[in-house]
Design brief:
about 375 residues; mainly alpha; Na+/H+ antiporter like fold; 19 helices
């Protein structure tokens, strides 16, 4: 198929996913993954076989991680870290300490694949929690602030674990670390002043100024053979206050990624899923998906602070969600050969269960605002 027609088809799928998602009140990413799976099976359209599709999807993953970092406020993390840190630690360790061992000894997976699965499934979905709390106007409540801060810390722990476990030793890694230690503090301190200086000029220089350090860090991560997740996440967090105070610049950056490349990222993930592997591993997907949610809840429930005990089930369910970072980690894993197509497909199915089951349960039966209304 002609490249432009292929791109038009992909964008039509993204639009369709958005329409379906708005109808059911769920994240469009879930339906983009499913539509990507459908087009991959029906037309053989897989990002792994199309260079430009794979490249744009990778940029979408980097942008998605960066935007996830910008959703967090430094002040919120500072205020809530005492309440959110135990939740984050419980959320991360509940999966990281159990899933790799289980997959290695019970399912016969190699250690690299098992460890990657443990990291990918340990995340909490910023995208889903953001939709549930922000769009409902509940982010600034005590429950919302604690959960959002805990999401940031959980995903930070998962990103650090991914970097530590799978970063190959070498000078390239040291160069990346040096660039990270230089650019992140500079972005935190001076990005607002730089954006103000170029505000309103033609050519959208604010967008270019945001993309420059992001792509530089991502490029150094690629050279070092490291996932760009941690650098992008930290850079987004460092720039969260500057972009939050400059809504126009933030809107432009979000449009660059969310309007185009992020959808390609999720479509690409779905296109690389094997239907045969999904059917063959259906039992494992259900056990792993529901078991992951239950493990997260069992670990998180006792970690909820006393002042929020009345909403502990709702908090535990939100902390059990999965989607954004898990998909980024899995795309890195299959690209680096840490997991094969069958394992990738099983883990994608597990992540979709984590996106749907706890979200629907939290909103339908345990929403504290709905109970009080």
């Amino acid at each position: 198929m002609n490249d432009l027609l292929t791109l038009a088809l992909l964008l039509s799928l993204a639009v369709g996913a958005q329409l379906i998602a708005s109808r059911f009140g769920l994240s469009a990413a879930i339906f983009e993954i499913l539509l990507g799976l459908a087009v991959g099976q029906a037309l053989g359209l897989r990002s792994s076989e199309i260079g430009w599709f794979s490249f744009l999807a990778a940029l979408g993953g980097i942008g998605l991680t960066f935007l996830a970092g910008t959703e967090m406020e430094v002040g919120r993390v500072r205020r809530q870290w005492r309440s959110s840190a135990p939740l984050a630690l419980a959320s991360f360790l509940s999966i990281f300490l159990t899933v790799p061992v289980s997959l290695h000894h019970l399912a016969g997976w190699q250690w690299d694949a098992s460890l990657l699965a443990g990291v990918a499934l340990s995340e909490t979905s910023v995208a889903i929690v953001y939709v549930v709390l922000i769009e409902g106007g509940r982010a600034r409540t005590d429950v919302g602030s604690v959960v959002l801060a805990a999401c940031f810390l959980t995903n930070l722990a998962a990103s650090v674990a991914l970097a530590v476990l799978f970063a190959p030793p070498g000078l390239e890694v040291l160069l990346l670390l040096a660039a990270l230690l230089l650019l992140v503090p500079l972005a935190y301190r001076y990005s607002g002043k730089v954006l103000d200086r170029f505000r309103g000029r033609p050519g959208e220089p604010e967008v270019k100024l945001v993309l420059l350090p992001l792509l530089l860090l991502a490029g150094l991560a690629s050279v070092a053979g490291v996932a760009a997740v941690l650098p992008a996440y930290l850079l987004g967090f460092a720039m969260s206050r500057s972009l939050g105070e400059r809504k126009e610049a933030w809107s432009k950056v979000r449009t660059v990624f969310l309007g185009f490349m992020v959808s390609l990222f999720f479509l690409a993930a779905g296109s690389n899923v094997s239907m045969e592997a999904l059917l063959a591993g259906a039992g494992l997907i259900v056990v792993l998906g529901l078991g992951r949610v239950l493990l997260k809840m069992l670990f998180v429930l006792p970690a909820v602070s006393a002042s929020l005990r009345g909403d502990r089930v709702y908090i535990a369910l939100l902390m059990s969600t999965s989607l954004t970072f898990g998909m980024v980690f899995l795309q890195f894993g299959i690209g680096q050969g840490l997991i094969d197509t069958a394992q990738f497909s099983i883990l994608v199915g597990t992540i979709i269960i984590g996106a749907l089951a706890p979200t629907l349960a939290a909103q339908r039966w345990f929403d504290p605002w709905r109970r009080n209304s």
